[in-house]
Write a structure and sequence with these properties.
mainly alpha, 230 residues, Serine Threonine Protein Phosphatase 5, Tetratricopeptide repeat, 15 helices, 2 domains
Length: 230
């Protein structure tokens, strides 16, 4: 199926009321059609992996077409140049999250980009860096605990970020890394406690640290970690 045919399918999947719902969630709807993500996933399963189609869909500039592109692209063919080009087009938090969760974490440059992007100034690439950290913690079963140590200084650096969409990415990274293993849980709790220093930390960092500590100490998380290590 070529990009024109897929775009026809996307237009047919538009549902009334979706655009206002997206806008309510803070999603940029300027170039959106109004197709819900579950419908995009169904279409992606039908299409399968098709990297040329993914590139063509991204070039349309349509919000849902770009999310679909992240679902059908071949991660083995996604290099640093492609990641940078798509990151430069990010214009909404959900597009960032979908690209990282569906595709970017599987690409070879993911670990390097996580750190590099987290140090960027622009909202969406910066968020993408931390979302990549979170999705790597969630999905990369082959990575050892040491691989995540490099992420903690970036998390500590930006925990007080004033931009809500960026700070939520930082929080997600800290909490997801801390759920990965008992060792990383202890390290993440150490970071969370340090962020609550009333003298040296901002109120934003304090709140982030407190919320992360509560979740990482919860019986739900601790029970899962005990089960995973037994």
């Amino acid at each position: 199926m070529d990009a024109d045919a897929v775009m026809e399918r996307l237009h047919a999947l538009v549902e009334p009321g979706t655009i206002p719902s997206m806008a309510h969630l803070g999603i940029n709807t300027e170039h959106a059609l109004g197709v819900r993500v579950p419908r995009l996933r169904e279409l992606a399963r039908e299409l399968g992996t098709d990297h040329e189609l993914a590139v063509a869909l991204w070039e349309t500039g349509i919000h849902e077409a770009r999310i679909l592109a992240s679902m059908v692209a071949d991660p083995a063919r996604v290099d640093g140049e492609r990641m940078e080009a798509w990151a430069a087009d990010f214009n909404s938090w959900d597009l960032v999250d979908q690209c990282c969760a569906n595709l970017f974490w599987k690409a070879a440059p993911a670990w390097d980009k996580a750190l590099a992007w987290s140090a960027r100034d622009e909202d969406y690439p910066k968020r993408a860096g931390f979302v990549l950290m979170a999705t790597l913690a969630l999905h990369d079963d082959e990575a050892g605990d040491d691989a995540f140590e490099a992420f903690f200084p970036a998390i500590e650096r930006d925990a007080g970020e004033h931009r809500d969409r960026v700070r939520k990415g930082v929080s997600w990274a800290l909490r997801q890394i801390g759920k990965r293993s008992p060792g990383l849980n202890a390290r993440a709790l150490e970071v969370a406690q340090g962020l609550q220093d009333p003298v040296n930390q901002s109120k934003e960092a304090h709140r982030l640290g407190h919320e992360a500590e509560v979740e990482l100490r919860s019986e739900l998380v601790q029970g899962r970690l005990r089960g995973a290590s037994s």
